[in-house]
Every structure is written in structure tokens, then in C-alpha cells.
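Weekly puzzle thread! Below is a chain. First person to post its structure in C-alpha cell form gets bragging rights.
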Amino acid sequence: MTVRALPRWRFRHLRTRLAVQYGVLFAASLLVVAIVGQLVIWGQARDAVRAELRTSGSVYDRIWAMRAHALMDSASVLTRDFGFRSAVASGDRPTIESALASLRTRADVPQAFFVDLQGQVFGTGSGDVRRAIASVPTTLARGRTEAVIATRTGAFRLIVAPVLAPNEIGWVTFALPLDRAEMAALQHLSAIPLAATILTRDAKGSWHGVSSDVAGSRALDAFVATAIGGRSEPAFLALPDGDALALAKPLLGPAGKPSAVLLLSYPWAAAMAAYRTMEVGIALAGVMGLLLVLLGSRRLANGIARPIAALDAAARALEEGTRTELLVESDDEVGRLAQSFNRMSAGIVEREHRITHLAFHDTLTSLPNRTYFCQQLESELQRSLKRGQRTTLLCLDLDGFKGINDSLGHPIGDALLRQMGDILSRIASDAVVARLGGDEFAIILADHDDVDRPRALAQAILDEMRSPLLVEGHQIATGASIGIAISPNDGADSDALLKNADLALYRAKQDGRGVFRFFEPALDAAARKRRALELDLREAIQSGQFRLNFQPIFDLKRDRIGGFEALLRWEHPTRGNVPPIEFISVAEETGLIIAIGDWVMQEACRQATAWPAHVRVAVNVSPLQFRNSGFPNVIFQALSHSGLSPDRLEIEITESVFLDGETTVVTLLHKLRAMGVRIALDDFGTGYSSLSYLRSFPFDKIKIDKSFVDAVAEDRSAAAIVRAIVDLATALHMETTAEGVEDRDQLSELRGQGCSSIQGYLFSRPIEGNMVAAMIGSAMSAAA
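Winning reply:
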């Protein structure tokens, strides 16, 4: 057997072929390595961008909720303000718009409106926004307080806060534009350069960017439709600037359907830019030969695959909400990528901490807010219930805070609230101190063994407030009223305990302010009784349960009946005759006195038209009704509908109407005088400023209070006061009417002192309206 060597050319050919084959294999290996590396890089970049998109979307949701909560807190200060609710009830547009302007400044929002139950919009802003929000509050589903609307000028986020008095009488509405500035603020929250755009539908139903930065297309419509269908996941989307990874978040409108869409996108070219050097390195590594390839592959495995796998794991952990930090082992591209990831992770954690703090703390005082307070109170109640211990709740607010805000300005008011928060935190260092909103604070005392601790703490707070506080260079004398409720006797759950502490606070304010009161069951019963009376009052207005009685006013100089005072009476179907002293105060507190007063004015003028021309009708007007900007129009309509001559209507006011400013009141009085209506100052002499008011306005009549008339016949000092009032009125060309005349000695003394007319039981008690004509006829017959 012979062995034949291969021909040399064959050997060279085989070596060449093997070299070619090995070269091809090597090239294929390099190609495979390059493809695999590219796919790994592509996949990691995609996952990282997807994670950031999801995180940015989650961060935006939290910021959205936090902003809504902060705006609701700001609105609650206004919606709970008695003056604002009174202005709403009376339709006082200037007061409403002034309050809205102040609210816009405090809340730092461009547009704030008030929408009443008829859909009328108060406040300044663009016309299309005003038209769009008119029906939003009534369209919102129960429990929703926000929505997004799209108008011709762009998309707006609405925050709706109800105004309760105590029933819903309207809504304070914020309109925040979702414009380039809002999107730029969202983009700054991301560690990578995301682009945020608001999409709205055009007339054909196609989605496009509100700023014309994203044009409509079928692909965009399909992408948004998928997100609206509930499958909102990051995906590739063709945009004008190229392909990008995008995430669509539907924004619900008032009816619960998406009216706009938030589009978050990250250009794919930008995502891959950090990996360009790595791709070049992979290509160069293939040129260096098999040995270098093997060494390079090993280096690649150690330097790229492992860090990228670690980066993938870290990105997944971050997506699930776990704080992750990569170990940086080099200063190459992978090392720099790890450093960028670590910075992004730290930034996300820091933003989440800041968002969490803002969600549970008051931005002005840094105290826990109402949300945190309610969670803490419920937790403490459950713990104390298990241990058989007590939890005490103190609710307090500042006395006269509105006056401080109005006179010194909101910056001083805010500084006072911050100082108050510091004082409470120092005094109640062993308790949870929270600001519930406005000037209202709350303190939770848990697990205290000293039964006198709540009383001692309340007294310590009041003692601290007795001295004026130095706030921004101003000496401010203020105080606090405190209500205290203790579980489990005063409430086993947070709602009941908070309600009862509020009732105790209300009692403290009624008892003169600057005091503390513990909750008593009688307070709850009184609140229920008052609530029932309020509901009955509303029903009485609707069903016409009111009537008027009239008490004659006898003209001493002409010896005849000169007029009648209209007196309101309420005949309830089950309560019977309800005295005015029981329901007038409730009507004034709820604003119902305005509707009741309008009816009294209309009815009094209507009945007086049947009386002789010399007989006037006098109508008492409450301060709240008088301060209503529409009051002159009420007088005009009552006179016009009844046909009563203006000089036969006499309006009786007390000096309490001057509390809001003398200039405004005098201007309104002159307006009524110009209509021909007579003005009488009631209860003269019982206040501190009656004489100054006589100097400011020439009243037609002064009514001498019953407290002076009672003793006019026996007490020289009382007689001297009455004589002085009569002489003063005579000098000022005013008439006088003495109220509460009950015996002839009083009548003789008043007649002798020159009093113009009398009113009281001596002449007649109040009578029904259908008996007035008979009384006038009898009096005229007796005089004849």
C-alpha cells in the first residue's frame, strides 16, 4: 500500500479553501456576534425606554392627583367661607368674582370660575372655556371632581369643588391649560428627554396634537384606540421626527369618556445614540483575527453581556417600584450607561419621596394634611379600641382670621398660619398636629393616661394665644376656639369623632370665642334639630307656609292709625306656630332669609295697596338681605307689581347693617330714598354708634327701643333718654315711634314728650291681614 501525497497545488487549494471556509465561518461568526449584540443592545434600549415611559406616566398620574388634591384644599377655603356662600346665595357677582380672583392668586392657577345650579358661569376667562364648563359639574359622575375638556383654544384640565350651604348650590371650577408649558414641566420630570404632547379629536374624529406638533394619521388613530381600549403599553409609533417608542394615556372628559390623550414619546434614534460606540467596537473587534475574536468575545461577555443583563434586571426591578443601583466597574460606555441608570433611579426615588411628602403634608405649614390626618386618626382609633384606651381629638381655628386676611393681606395671613403651626407643634409635641385647611387645625392625642391632659393642652394653647403675635413686623391680636371630643364615648370611628369635635368647636364660638368646649350629646341633638328646622324652612318657602300679621302704628299727632308693621309668621303643618326667634337665626345663617325677605316685601306691598292712602306699611330688613346687591331691585319689583306708592313703604333697618362699611350702606340708603321709600332706624339707642349714623344719613324715623319705653313712666333716667331722643329727632326733622307701649302711663309720658307715634299691646296686638281693613274702619269711625 502506498501513500500518495497530495499535490502541492491541491494542498494549497485545500488550505485556501479551508482558509476561505474558516474565513467564511469566522465572518459568519462575527456576523452572528454582531447581530446578537445588536439585538441585545436593541432589546435593552427598548426595555429601558419602556420602563422610563411607564415610570414617567406613573409620576405624572401622582403629580396630577397631588395637584388636584392641593387645588381642592385651596377651593375648600373659599367654599366654606360664609361670606362667599352668602354672595352665591344672593347672586352677588362682584363679590363672587373678587373671591375668585383672590383664589386664582393663592392657588396659582390662570383661570377659576364659579358655576351655579342654572349653569351660569362667574369669573374671567376665555369664552370657549366658559361655555364648555357651564354643564361640566352636572355632567360629572358621582364622586368625580376632575375632568379634561377640549376646546378650540386647546385642552384644559378642570378641578370641580362643590359649594355647600349646606346643600350643593354651585361649584368652584379651576381650568388649567394643558399647553406647551404644562408639557415642558412634565418633560423635566423624566431622566431621559421624553416628549409630551396632548392629543385631541378633530371634527372627523381623527387624533392630532393640540400644538400641531403631531399630525393626524391612521397609525396614530389605531395607537390611541388601543390605549382607550384598556391596553395602554409602550409601542413603536411613526411620528414626524421619525420612529419613537410612545405611550398613550387617555384623559377622561366629564361624561367619563376620553376627551384628550397624553402622548409620551422617546425618539428611537436618541435611545440608540448611547450604543453607537459599542456597535463600532464590535465591528472593529472582528477584524483582529480569531484569537482576538475569542479574547474579544470573552471581554465582550464580561464587559457587555453581564452589565447589560444586570441593567436589564435593574430596569425590571425599577419598573416594579424597587430602588436599584448598579455597581460601576469601568468608565467605558457600559460604565457610563450604568452611571446614567443610577442617576435616573436616584432621581425617580427622590421625586417619589417628594410626591409622597406633598400628598400627605400641607405645603404652607409642612404639617400633616387632612389626608394624612384622617388615616392617622382611623389608625389610632383602631389601636386604642383594641387596647381599651382613649383617643382625644381637638379641633381649633383662629378667631377673626378672615379680618386679618382682609386687612393685612394673604401673605401676612399665611405667615400667621405658619407661626400657629409652629406653636401647636411645640405645645403638643407628644401629639399629631395637622392642618385641615384654611385656619382650621386638629390635634390627635393618643394613649394618654392623664385624664386631664386634653383640658390642660387646650388651656395651654389658649394661654399662648392671649398675647399678641409678632408676624412679619405686625402685632396681631388673635385667639383660638377649641372643640374637644374623646373616643369611644364621643365616637368610635373617625367620621363621628371629627363631627362631634366640630360641634364642640361651634359651641365654643357661640359662647364667645377664645374658649374650649367638650362635646356633649346635647350638641348633636341641637345640630340635628337645627338641620331638621333648616329642611322645614326650605319646604316652607316652596309650599307657602308663611303668612303676615300686622301690628298697627298709632299716629299721636293726628290721632289715627298711621301705618302697620309687617310681622312674619310660620304655621308649620306639624310643628304648629313656630316663633320667629327660633327660625330667623337659622334662615340668616343659611342665606334663606334672602328668599324669605323677598316674599315678605312682595306680600306686604300687595296687601297694603288695599289700605287708605295715609296708611303706610313698615317692613323689617335683615342685614344679610340689605347687603344683597339685588336688594334695590327687590324693592322696585315689589312696588311695581303691587302698584303701591313708594312713600307708603317704610324700610326698618338696625345699625348692624353698617358693620360692613358705612360708605356702602349710606350709598344704598340714598338710592332707596331716591326711589321715594322711607327709611327708619330700628332699636335706636341700643348700640354704640347710633348717633354717628344719624349724622351720616337723614332717616325719616327713629324707633325708640322697648327697653327705654318700659320704664319711661317710673324711671327718670329712662324718661330723660326718651326725651333726648325725641328732641334730637325733632331737631333733625325726623319722626319717632315708641315700641312696646303697654299701659296708659307710658302713653301719657310719651305724648307729653312729643313722641310722633306709638306701637304696642296698649293699642293692639298683631292681627291677621284680613282684619286690617276692619280695624282701620273702626278707628276712623271712633275718631269721627
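Puzzle host: Confirmed. Bonus trivia for everyone else. The first strand starts at residue 111 and ends at 116.
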